[in-house]
Amino acid sequence: MLPKKLILFLTIALISLSFKGDKKAFVVFDDIGKKASYEKILKKAEKADIILFGELHNNPINHWLQLELTKDIFFQINEDIVLGAEMYEADDQLIINEYLGGHYDYKTFVKEAKLWPNDKTDYAPLLDFAISNQLTFVATNVPRRYANMIYREGFKAFNHLNEEAKKYMAPLPIKYDPKLPGYVAMKKMAGGHGGDNLPKAQALKDATMAHFIMKNYRSGSTFIHFNGAYHSNNFEGIMWYLKQANPDLKILTINCVEQKSLEKLETENESTAHFVIVTPESMTKTY
């Protein structure tokens, strides 16, 4: 009969080997490309006023981590949190408030609000968490009709907007720096489509999201915002506008990318955020 210590050693070795070949769903890197961890993100969140969680819209791991991070911050760090998202437009705030208040069910909510096709699987769980814990959830994005106006006509399209319309966007005139690398790259990638107006429409969204974050942020709280990664990558976009409003804000940014290999952060993804979450290119999509 084998000694108990040897049996224990062999058992541990067998378990270790069985887990060695497990496929990873995600890996976290820091801003210089060094492997980090989810726990380090959570640690940094302790000192953050605002967290910009830049997602890939159809990536299920991104959405799961958004919900888990929200839960962990609420239960472990700060119960005074405010949630907000690009996926909800400012003119739907009343509908969101009524839904959060329990005035009607999700079926009615779907009929009344302008929702993304993956809302039920990816964003509704965040709303449900807000309902369960009586949290504020802010619709931060500009109504898409106004972004389309900018795309067609530039900022002059807003010359004759009435005061009611202006409630759903950042204060006019929108501060805009066309030399910001993100806007320059967007114009270049579009290959001439949209011309100067494409990055202007993007700036309107960035500025509006920053505006509603600032409007609902309160000292001592943690504002967690969910947006497409391109709205906060490279510490630009929403973050640029937040810093214009208050340079002293402590902002934590998260970028999500997909790579063929998870062993090393690809050069193009380095320094894009304080933390970069990498998932496999083969990850299934939510839509």
Task: Give a brief rundown of this model.
This protein is an alpha/beta fold. The chain is built from 11 helices and 7 strands. A 7-stranded mixed β-sheet has the order 1-7-6-2-5-3-4, sandwiched between helices.
Topology:
Elements: H1 4-20, E1 27-30, H2 38-45, E2 50-55, H3 60-77, E3 81-89, H4 93-100, H5 106-112, H6 119-132, E4 136-141, H7 144-153, H8 163-166, H9 181-189, H10 197-216, E5 222-228, H11 238-245, E6 251-259, E7 275-280
Parallel strand pairs: 2-5, 2-6, 3-4, 3-5, 6-7
Antiparallel strand pairs: 1-7
Helix pairs in contact: 3-6, 7-10, 9-10, 10-11
Short key terms for the protein model shown above:
287 residues, 43% helix, 16% strand, alpha/beta, 7-stranded mixed beta sheet, Rossmann fold
CATH topology: Rossmann fold
Q: How many domains would you count in the coordinates? A: 1
CATH architecture: 3-Layer(aba) Sandwich
Shape: globular
Summarize the main sheet: 7 strands, mixed
How helix-rich are the residues, as a percent range?
Answer: 40-55%
The SSE order reads HEHEHEHHHEHHHHEHEE
Briefly note the structural class of the backbone.
Answer: alpha/beta
CATH hierarchy, class = Alpha Beta
Number of helices: 11
Report the strand count.
Answer: 7
Walk across the major sheet and give the strand order: 1-7-6-2-5-3-4
Average residue-wise pLDDT:
93
Low-confidence stretches: 14-19
Query: Distance between termini?
Result: 56 Å
- Rounded to the nearest angstrom, the radius of gyration is 21 Å
Q: What percent of residues are in strands? A: 15-25%
